[in-house]
Queue: 2 jobs
Job 1
Amino acid sequence: MSTRAGFPADFAWGTATAAYQVEGAAAEGGRTPSIWDTFARVPGAIADGTTGDVADEHYRRFIEDADLMASLGVNSYRFSISWTRLLPNGGDTVSQEGLAFYRALASALLERGIRPYATLYHWDLPQELEDAGGWLVRDTADAFAGYARIAARELGDLVTDWITLNEPWCSAFLGYASGVHAPGRRTGSKASHAAHHLLLGHGKAVAAIREERPEASVGITLNLYSIRPASESEADVDAARRIDGLQNRLFLEPVLAGEYPVDVLDDLGERAWFEEQPASDALEIAAPIDFLGVNYYSRHTTAAGAADASGAASANPGSESVRFVDTGADRTQMGWEIHPDGLLDVLEQAHAYAPELPLYVTENGSAYADTVAPDGSVDDPGRTEYLRLHVDACAEALHRGLPLRGYFCWSLMDNWEWAFGLSRRFGLVYVDYETQKRTVKSSGEWLREFLTGAVEAV
Ligand code: FCB
């Protein structure tokens, strides 16, 4: 049984979104295209053929959205800054209109007692930087640090909590290996070079933000999976080692322990390339951080198998033959298994590397095919249950003594879900894309009641 009162009074209770998924206004105020504007126009790339051009019109409706958050009773909001809205073309000249938007958003939050947590990179690389090689080239890390410095300088009086990257695994391996995310490239194990440059950009950005704003609190968000083998056979255990390596350890270890896991570099066949990189990179990547953000949605059960014969490029280069086993557990509309205990697994895993480091759940949530009832209400029992179980897992994490400082639900409202377009709804708030009308779902009502102390999680 967990109640809000069982959590520390200063626990961050928030919702999360990302710029391209909610803002719309893609060409306003001088904003220029990112790799997602480009990718969304590639025929067949997005399931329903939509783009983020309009999305939730959050750019125009952010006051209404801040009011919605306040009505839910949350005290924190994690949003991302669109790089090209602040710095058109990925250059170093600030767009005053872009800056005014983020300043107004942060101010609106603060006026409502909601603490802004700003993510600098939620996947929207300026197109010009992709044209110059994207994350496969080292210069992109420097460009990112330059952007981070300007953002901290221009917004750091309003925002103290910064997240450098969101889910660098997705940027690297979905962007440059499987190609299902922007920029849609299929470079096999070279996607790990993108991972390295992302992490280097993170480390350089941490340093730049600290120089501009010594009082800032800076972290990174990783998407971690609870991974276990389908059986105790040596081959299945090795499959789990491989996926845990690619998904979790390839990111956790350089950031928190100062070195890459050599077994993973060998699986990738990329050890030689990593050894050629300047020795100082490891130190930069391991720059001390103030917190780790963990995005947790699901678990993977892995088994040894034969390489996929469909011809699709794998997101797991070098480990293409690993099979993901259907355990029969309930799944969300994304096909992701519901496994709240896995949240504890990933928090424990991260904690073991850095026992003093504060942790946040920076995303957790579920997609269901919601419908609006004739009376206008949206009842979403599946999402409510998912939320309750994961909030309860947070209570258990605190009970175990883990330094968990906050929980952000993905997402405040339905939004443009990347390669799924508008066909997947994750919101606590329903969005009618024809009218932009927002309706709090029953999951949102549940969160509101939980936060006021009216209901228990489990
Ligand atoms: C995460 C992303 C977020 C959203 C959720 C469902 O991987 O960070 O933008 O798409 O998944």
Note: The first helix runs from residue 19 to 22.
Job 2
Amino acid sequence: MIPFPTGNTVKITLVGAGAIGSLWAGALARQGHAIHLWRRQTDTAFTLQWQGLDAPDTDTFTFCCNQPERLTSSDVILITVKAFQVLESIKSIAPWLRTATPVIVMHNGMGTENEVLQLLPDNPVLYATTSQAALRVDRQSVRHTGVGPTFLGAVNRAGEQWQSLAGVLNTALAPCQWHEDIHAPQWQKLAVNCAINPLTAILQCRNGELAAPDFTAELTGICREVAAVMTAAGYPTRSETLLQRTLTVIQATAANYSSMQQDVANQRPTEIDAITGFLIEQAHHFQLATPANFALWQQIKHLEQNYG
Ligand code: PAF
């Protein structure tokens, strides 16, 4: 295992500074790590107001951006763009990326892994899935709005040596744990996202509103289909377990708007293809029917196609 001794400054290039990316950028900078941002905007600096959970004060950080030499000298790359932007963002960093540098990909949903591995055949590649919640208050401010676990795991042999990165992430935003099979927590998170995200985006409501008894039948139907697909994919589970987990997340994040609700509210492309779309694709592979999830996928697609 390649160690990152506690207290050492780690040079991190963070690709994408949306809500989750900004949350991690600030949290890692607070630990003294050297954060460099790689953004689509061409500015060479970005100032972020970072507000911790229940903290009245904000921290202000000014990050250096888009410096190819900082990218090359990074100890680790953390990609926090949306699933549909992952390949494009990897292509944008590839010319300056050393093959020894570990790359962590963190996004909602699944399905990018094979193409990422093709683009990065020699780098250590890791995936992370997080249930931390953040709200972009405005373009330059982010607030940490909920604590949840983060899991990190390797998706190629070279990535397996980098378990110490879970410690780096854990010190910045606990809890973060290494997982020997990252697909397991990815599926668990995907199940919750299949249940909460499309419904809250269609209804334009906070997560907590799904706790009303009116939604029990619909949530049950979604979870039943997800459980069947997960079981076929080698991650056996029961629909009752998924429903219970979904209701727990709904309670814990009752006041929050889901990421898909926020995307639809702001007329941005959503992650529906990486969440419900991935589920439907897997269901097709295992010849399983997922009518409840398919109906939600269609409704989100319809909303996206009718943005003004
Ligand atoms: O995408 C999100 O917003 C979150 O993953 C979750 C768990 C649905 C909570 O809002």
Note: The two ends are 51 Å apart (CA to CA).
